[in-house]
Automatic annotation (TrEMBL):
Annotated segments matching region Disordered: 322-377
Organism listed in the record: Pseudoneurospora amorphoporcata
Residues given in the record as NAD(+) binding sites: 43-47, 53-55, 125-128, 217-218, 241-243, 261
Protein name: NAD-dependent protein deacetylase
Alphabetical UniProt keywords: Metal-binding, NAD, Transferase, Zinc
Length: 377
């Protein structure tokens, strides 16, 4: 069994759990007291599937795009930049488009919670649709940053046909509106765009949950990053992540499971007596070959290859744009937007005070803490 630790002093007793550990979380679930489990996920739950996350120092998309002639790597997901030059986004979309990746055991664990009637709501920041592929019912999912499932013109908002979108994305070509010739963009949320109304309609469910599981997210993008803080202090929160993030680990019933989330999830499944069922469901869904590939960790190499290919391709289109337009620097509109971006509230407190409506990144850092990694499976 791996180890789970909290940053609160050992003398501070948990209010709800018998102790700050995964077996205690499992006992809490088995006792029937956790009837409403809220799950909050980010890119880290899909890295084992071969999809790069955004901010990991070596394999993250932004870390690698930082080497290019972009003012900020996040620009690829900003509307002003997209209006100026949509091609880099479509280069990324070609490789990240749902279809070629398979769910991880963490995705399947979330579905297991759903089949056992325990999943209250899943809030995901991911656009890879892997939770749906794992079987999680659509009405239990809030895709907080949208998804590739639909697309529309950014000017007249007319929806664009799925089959034509798929064709364009497969060739990394930019689709244009059939009515007004405007640019077409998938309904994924770019920086400074509003989140889907469903996020705001269901946000209260993170407050009503009796257990909050946070997996694979750096909690740097608001308002999503504020969700774990909606839970009352006595509600256990469990973090499955490579590193400590947000305020996780600061409350008496917080359990930090630091390390890769698939390992942590397997440990929780063991403690619950669900492990066999979980592994069987996962293998049935993805097949033995893919399961073995993920288990061997060969996807790490794939992520490295994927990200270096992506960066190479984006670099190429940035330079094409450079030649055709005479410049790759942002338009005046984009520059103004960027300036606004830098001056918009970025701390969690400020965002909460000002009532967030759109995606903002935060530059919060976590306080020093005792960190212990999960080990083995
Ligand atoms: P990030 O890349 O910011 O964070 C991923 C987190 O998962 C990091 O803390 C990693 O250490 C951790 N991680 C990576 N692999 C892991 C693994 N196998 N097991 C456990 N932890 C792992 O991704 P997000 O938090 O999802 O938004 O990013 C949030 C948003 O930023 C995205 O939705 C996207 C991006 O800009 C938009 O595009 C609007």
């Amino acid at each position: 069994m791996g180890q789970e630790f909290s940053a609160v002093p050992e003398t501070t007793k948990p209010e709800t759990l018998s102790e700050r550990s995964l077996p205690a979380v499992a006992d809490y679930i088995k006792s029937g007291k956790a009837k409403k489990v809220a799950v909050l996920t980010g890119a880290g739950i899909s890295t084992a599937a071969g999809i790069p996350d955004f901010r990991s120092p070596e394999t993250g998309l932004y870390a690698n795009l930082a080497a290019l002639e972009l003012e900020e790597p996040e620009d690829v997901f900003s509307l002003p930049f997209f209006k100026e030059n949509p091609k880099p986004f479509y280069v990324l979309a070609k490789d990240l488009y749902p279809g070629k990746f398979h769910p991880t055991i963490s995705h399947v664990f979330i579905n297991l919670l759903a089949t056992k009637g325990l999943l209250y709501q899943l809030f995901t920041q991911n656009i890879d649709c892997l939770e749906r592929r794992a079987g999680v019912p659509a009405d239990l999912i809030v895709e907080a940053h949208g998804s590739f499932a639909s697309q529309r013109c950014i000017d007249c908002k007319m929806p664009y046909p799925d089959d034509k979108m798929r064709e364009h994305v497969s060739r990394a070509e930019v689709p244009h509106c059939e009515k007004c010739n405007g640019l077409v963009k998938p309904d994924i949320v770019f920086f400074h765009e509003n989140l889907p109304s469903l996020f705001f309609d269901r946000r209260h469910m993170a407050e009503e949950a009796d257990l909050v599981l946070v997996l694979g997210t750096s909690l740097t993008v608001h308002p999503f990053a504020g969700l774990p803080d909606l839970a009352p202090v006595e509600v256990p929160r469990v973090l499955f992540n490579m590193e400590r993030v947000g305020s996780l680990g600061s409350q008496p019933d917080d359990v930090l499971v630091l390390g890769d989330c698939d390992t942590g999830v397997r440990q929780l499944a063991d403690a619950l007596g669900w492990r066999e069922e979980l592994e069987a469901e996962w293998r049935k869904l993805v097949g033995d070959e893919e399961a073995d590939r993920q288990l061997k960790g060969s996807t790490k190499r794939q992520v490295e290859d994927e990200v270096s290919q992506l960066v190479h391709d984006v670099d190429k289109v940035l330079h094409v744009h450079d030649v055709s337009s005479g410049s790759s620097s942002p338009s005046p509109e984009a520059a103004t937007e960027k300036q606004q971006k830098e001056t918009t509230p970025t701390t969690q407190q400020e965002v909460q005070q000002n009532g967030p409506a759109s995606v903002e990144k935060s530059v919060e850092t976590t306080a020093g803490t005792e960190e212990v990694k999960v080990t083995g499976t």
